[in-house]
Amino acid sequence: MSEILVLCYHAVSERWKADLAVTPGALRRQVELLLGRGYVPATFRAAVAAAPAPRTLAITFDDAFRSVFELAFPLLSELGAPATVFVPTQHVDSGQPMAWPGIDQWLGGPHEQELVGMSWKDVATLAGAGWEIGSHTRTHPRLTQLDEAALARELAGSRQDCEAQLAIPCLSLAYPYGDVDARVAAAAASAGYHAAAELSRRLGGGRALRWPRVGVYNADGELRFRLKTGRALRRVRALGPVVRGR
Questions:
Q1: Which of 124, 128, 174, 242 has most Cβ atoms within 10 angstroms of its Cβ?
Q2: pLDDT per residue as tens digits for the range 205-223
Q3: Interatomic CA distance for residues 196 and 223, integer angstroms
Q4: Contact in structure between 151 and 184 (CB atoms under 8 Å)
Q5: Backbone angles phi, psi at 237, to 5 degrees
Q6: In this structure, is residue 219 part of a structural domain?
Q7: Which CATH number characterizes residue 42's domain?
Q8: Contacts 24+ apart (CB under 8 A), 190-194
Q9: Alpha helices in the chain (DSSP H)
């Protein structure tokens, strides 16, 4: 049975001290650590569909921050590790800082430009280099709070946006805020997704449309990262209920 470890990152920055941003140095050390443990990198959907190795690592980035293209892409290319980026499609190509609850506190400050997302050209470059492009909905809402029509627009609409821009299938999804329930997962299946990622403190096995990920944040030093990605802690977390969410 394959062991699949899916990491969830957001932004990459040397200066931005937001919880969602890791430094390039931290990203490099973390990925090198896991490669040294024998993990083989793969895109998210490839890992979920048919893990290519006994220990498989899927590196994912939510929100399509421009810093992922500028800093994470060359670094991971050097390490031979493709990744998956989940794109909130209405924010792509705007050239403006993205804003939704959780990041809008940085608007108007010295780090506002850290909120700028990728262009479709950036996204296409990643796809051409072997990265997987998945959906992160259109506007980054809390999906469990939407009615059926709005839910369909966010899920099916963002998939259509990606496919229209890139001319390749978009078959994976990350739920914004990790906000998912049975109704939302069923809507994701109806919208045509084959795999979907959530954020969960329960990291035992996974189902294709509710696959758990380990969130990695600015505060995760080396010891904390080793513990979060180690087998022992992940097994313990798999046995108990969710204690607190993010």
A1: 174
A2: 568 999 999 999 999 999 9
A3: 29
A4: yes
A5: -65, -30
A6: yes
A7: 3.20.20.370
A8: 190/152, 191/152, 191/155, 191/156, 191/159, 192/156, 192/159, 193/135, 193/155, 193/159, 194/45, 194/49
A9: 24-36, 44-49, 66-67, 73-79, 120-128, 148-166, 182-190, 222-229, 231-239
